[in-house]
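Run: sequence + zinc ion -> complex structure.
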Amino acid sequence: MEALRVLNSGGSLTEAKTTTPMEAPMCASCEVLSINGVLCHETGCPEAWKSYTRECTWCGQEFTPEEKHQDCCSDDCSEAYHG
Ligand SMILES: [Zn+2]
Ligand SMILES: [Zn+2]
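>> structure
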């Protein structure tokens, strides 16, 4: 994780960020990086879950969670899964 070490050792955070023009990763809790199109949060970042898709436990569709413990892609799936 060379890039992260650069950030932590000070210097210009803006310069050290490697972002793609298509998406500018934002994180309130760390300096998130976009490496090869994959968002990388600093270790232990409490917001990291927001950047990763997960699979709906009910229908199997990939979705981006809006809440930390969200396990279904939609309210419908959530209701169906949790009863
Ligand atoms: Zn983060
Ligand atoms: Zn679903």
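>> summary
The two ends are 43 Å apart (CA to CA). The CA atoms of residues 50 and 65 lie 6 Å apart.
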